[in-house]
Amino acid sequence: MSEERIDERTETTCPRCAVGCSLRYDEGTGRATGIEGARVNREGRLCPKGIAAFEDLDEDRLTAPLVRRDGNLEPVSWEEALDCVTNGIERVRERYGPDAIAFLGAPRCTNEENYLLQKIARSLGTNNVDNRARSCHDATAEAMETRLGSGGTTNSLDDLAEADAFLVVGANPAERQPIAFDRCVRPAVNDGAALLHLDPRANRTTRLATQHLAPHPGRDALTVALLARAILDMGLEDRTFIAERTTGFDQFVRSMDRFDLAADAERAGLDPAAVREAAETFGEAERAAVVTGTGIEADEGATPNALLDLLLVTGNLGKRGTGMNPFRGLVNEQGASDMGARPDCLPGEASVSDVDARARVAAEWGVEPPAEPGEAEPDLVREFGSGVRGAFVLGENPAVNRLDDATSEQLFAALDFLAVQDVAPNETTAFADVVLPASAWAEKEGTVTNLDRQVQALRPAASPPGRARRDLDVLADLGARLTDADFSYDGPAGVFDEMTRMNLLYAGMEYEEVLDGGERWPLPEGENEGQDVLHRERFRTGRQRAPLEPIEAVASGADADDRGPDFEEGLVLLTESRVDEDAGSPAARREEATVQINPVDAVARDIEDGAQVAVESSRGVVELRARRTDAVREGTVFAHASVADPLVGSGRTQVRITELSE
Ligand SMILES: Nc1nc2c(c(=O)[nH]1)N[C@H]1C(S)=C(S)[C@@H](COP(=O)(O)OP(=O)(O)OC[C@H]3O[C@@H](n4cnc5c(=O)[nH]c(N)nc54)[C@H](O)[C@@H]3O)O[C@H]1N2
Ligand SMILES: Nc1nc2c(c(=O)[nH]1)N[C@H]1C(S)=C(S)[C@@H](COP(=O)(O)OP(=O)(O)OC[C@H]3O[C@@H](n4cnc5c(=O)[nH]c(N)nc54)[C@H](O)[C@@H]3O)O[C@H]1N2
Ligand code: SF4
Ligand SMILES: [Mo]
Fold first, then answer.
1. At the top level of its lineage, which domain of life is listed (predicted)?
2. What percent of the chain has pLDDT over 90?
3. Among the four 169, 509, 556, 656, which has the fewest Cβ within 10 Å?
4. For ligand 1, atom 11, which residue shows the shortest CA distance?
């Protein structure tokens, strides 16, 4: 690809994470440069990943539609490829019904593209539409939706900068969402705010922490409950907030009786004095905010629910510098969910069974969406070849997953029909019957929604290569062929308009305003600025009060994930959610070939620093070099996702480590 075809003047949004920095191409360096005065990266900074974003366009691109013939994918005309997709999906639907088709995607695609994807699925009669980036923060979003009425970050990056204390749990924002971290957390901490980091491993975020608590994995909910207990013991709860904005306080207090700070802190692997100190910091802060990541997803919602309790008893919701703030991963992870690319909700976090929401959709589409929720992506994939016979995949690579490898291959091979729309060949296209070549981020127009609910523009700075087409155009063609609904749109603006008429979170937004700078959801009536802080007077449930959860539920969630019978010998594997290849310097590659182990565990297993070791889980074995370090707590080891992937299944992974003899 020649670099000349990228337009330097086009300002667009970084595709590499959910922070949503603004950038443009710079001919001088051949890389991206930030835009000063942008909504997110105001000073015009980008992180190294963002600077390299235009490299996506150079990848081994798909440039022609492909159809499988005699086992091989062969180039065909668009007409032929689209016919093939239509026939494949119709065949499955006629034979097995609409729920035998899965629509998977697309956290890297625009809001408009996601909207069309779910419109196709639902117009065909199925809610089996999901995106797998959602599972990175699913338990957290679900707890927030249930108790607060919305899974969106409660606060904005701007107002978070006013916090006096941050509690960062199971996340590494200093490295994973660096521009967001540098915009709100770092300056506040430099100004004297406390940063409590709750993570079994010290990572880059810990470097700025005023206190690091490293509980054993599976003991986060317990630890957070102990923080709440200590806060109550010290009388640091917010009585006014509790009286005005919560229910169930007395029951909550009673449920705290079962905890014994000294014994339970030990159970969590922590020093009781450290827990008390953290509780004091959090409880005494005028404004305290929680930031979460993928590390709290393993305990079926126990940890996010305990964190919501902690925020409620300390009055840290609905105000600037507070709240529950999951820092999301992929560029449009938030937007894909907002658009209804999820099995349980129509656009705008409205349940598929919500009568009013269904009526709004039916009025626009002329088609009733199905009222029963569909299935989540991991379940759909497990049913490939049985309950699910056909799949349409948009901008995802579900063949790389945390199922057993052999099973994954069997599952994908067992589909009657698979169509994939992607910009490059990947593990999933290898199983496809039809491959549709699509546009990369910098080749298309539309909107994406970042981690603090800002809707911003993607603008085309280049054209798709060869015969590749824009995702939106392909989806509109497919919708028209496959369904009775209207898919004739005046480009992304037309799709956006239709979406805002049924998505109450985006109601009142103008496409032109988004292109001009951005809009945040939800827009208060009659105003142009989206709400920075959610739940100010009322929660998004519509109620003034949110329930405190009796702590039994939280504690049993923590207990449910007990260390398991083989814990004495096994270690819990920590890894990171690596989806993009980060630029690999030789030093980084050396780092990636190591497994970090606590010196205590290393001594117990006779593992020398620097020794070659076999790391084994129930899924597989990898050989790595051991590095003794206090960065990981006892009972855990850490390896980069690039090497840990063969070991990791769903849930927590236990590994055994043995030194290999020379
Ligand atoms: N450079 C770069 N940035 C990225 C990405 C990338 O691939 N590269 N990917 C993006 C994506 S898709 C995502 S989802 C985000 C992920 O963003 P984060 O979730 O912030 O990133 P991780 O590095 O996965 O951090 C998870 C942390 O959870 C900890 N952890 C693991 N188990 C437990 C536990 O039981 N309890 C607690 N308290 N902590 C635990 C781990 O030790 C780790 O420090 O990053 C995004 N940003
Ligand atoms: N085994 C394993 N499983 C994991 C993870 C892991 O580290 N290991 N990480 C987990 C995490 S945190 C996440 S977020 C998910 C991520 O899972 P995915 O979203 O599936 O991420 P990728 O594997 O990067 O695949 C993205 C695909 O989208 C294509 N693509 C990018 N932009 C566009 C576009 O504009 N249009 C179209 N049509 N295609 C596009 C890319 O070419 C690529 O093939 O996976 C989760 N699952
Ligand atoms: S923080 Fe995220 S959005 Fe900003 S430049 Fe880095 S990768 Fe891009
Ligand atoms: Mo993710």
1. Archaea
2. 85
3. 556
4. 329
CA of 282 to the centre of ligand 3 (A): 29
38 lines ligand 3 (CB under 6 A): no
Residue 619's pLDDT band (cuts 50, 70, 90): confident
Lowest-pLDDT range, 129-143, 257-271, 545-559, 587-601?
545-559
One domain, residues 142 and 128:
no
Does the CB atom of residue 295 touch ligand 1 within 6 A?
yes
pTM of the model: 0.96
Task: Give the CATH number for residue 322.
Answer: 3.40.228.10
N-terminal to C-terminal alpha carbon distance within the chain: 47
Domain containing residue 7: CATH number: 2.20.25.90
Residue 505 lies in a domain: no
Number of neighbours of residue 606 by Cβ within 10 angstroms: 9
Q: Could you read off the pLDDT of 362-384 as tens digits, one per residue?
A: 999 999 999 999 999 999 999 99
Q: Which domain holds residue 161?
A: 138-326
What per-residue confidence (pLDDT) applies to 530? 72
Contact predicate 141/178, CB 8 Å: no
Among protein residues, the one with the nearest Cα to ligand 3's atom 2 is: 17
Cα 105 to averaged position of ligand 4 atoms, centre (Å) = 13
Nearest CA to ligand 1 atom 10: 329
- 102 with 247, same domain: the answer is no
pLDDT score at 62: 97
Cα 579 to chain centroid distance, Å, stands at 11
